[in-house]
Amino acid sequence: MGYERNYRSTSTEAVAQTTMNKVYGWMSLALVISTVTALLTVQSPALLSLIYGNRWGIWVLIIAEFALVIGVSASINRISFGAAATMLALYAALNGVMLSSVLLLFELTVVYTAFAATALTFASMSAIGYFTKRDLSSLGSYLLMGLIGVIIATVINVFLASSVLDAIITYVGLFIFVGLTAYDTQKIKRMLQLQEAGFADVRKLALMGALNLYLDFINLFLYILRLFGNRR
Fold it and tell me: Which of 46, 135, 139, 185 is most buried per CB count within 10 Å?
């Protein structure tokens, strides 16, 4: 019995580790899609005019992104793995179109530096979340409350246009997504460990984990970019 229990534990752990590698793989693929889409968008005057030349272009993109995220999260257990993967790729592409504004607003050297800093920060915090023995679940509620506060403050600052409040939002937002990177990594790892070895839907779980880490990376990148400043 003890041997069988240890074998199952080892087998499940191996599946979880393999699937975690797939989580990072899907996340990396989503980042590549976003990067390529952003570069293609800034090279297309017609597409830039369509998106930024009228008041509805950005709103259509924002609504489409929200619809995709909500759609894949709500229907992940009902749709096929192929459909879920397609929705993730489509979301990454739409987000890439949105991120084209970064290439228009900031010098390329600043963008590259911010991306490198983001990659190093993300890798460090994700490693902490994966390997630490400390339970980070208690941080989740605090980070979520902080994120809601940042969103509200950001909306308010649209009207106030306060540079001081903007700086506070930037530092607090950066801190929140640094924490969320470690928290989400540990949460995904534990969810994978709870799955039975060979569980069919573990691939979908990997996709959802990739989506969460992708969002953490993108938001971390945007806050680091705001911290660097130096707009065109």
Answer: 185
Q: Report, in this order, helix, strand and coil percent for the chain, each rounded to 5.
A: 85, 0, 10
Contact between 38 and 96 under an 8 Å Cβ cutoff? The reply is yes
φ, ψ of residue 231 to 5 degrees: the values are -70, 160
Tell me the whole-structure pTM to 2 decimals.
0.89
Element (DSSP H or E) covering residue 119: helix 108-131
b/e sequence 23-37, b meaning 16+ C-beta within 10 Å: bbebbebbbebbeeb
CB 169 within 8 A of CB 153: yes
Which residue matches tokens 């949460």? 187
Nearest 5 degrees, angle CA 115-CA 120-CA 126?
120
Q: What pLDDT, in 10s, does the model give residues 164-208?
A: 999 999 999 999 999 999 999 999 998 888 764 444 577 888 899
SS3 label, residue 231: strand
Give the tokens for residue 201.
Answer: 């839907």
Give residues with Cβ within 8 angstroms of 136, minimum separation 6.
129, 182, 183, 186, 187
Lookup: tokens for 28: 């990396």
**Quick one: which H or E segment has residue 89?**
helix 81-105
Out of 14-18, 92-96, 108-112, 148-152, pick the least confident: 14-18
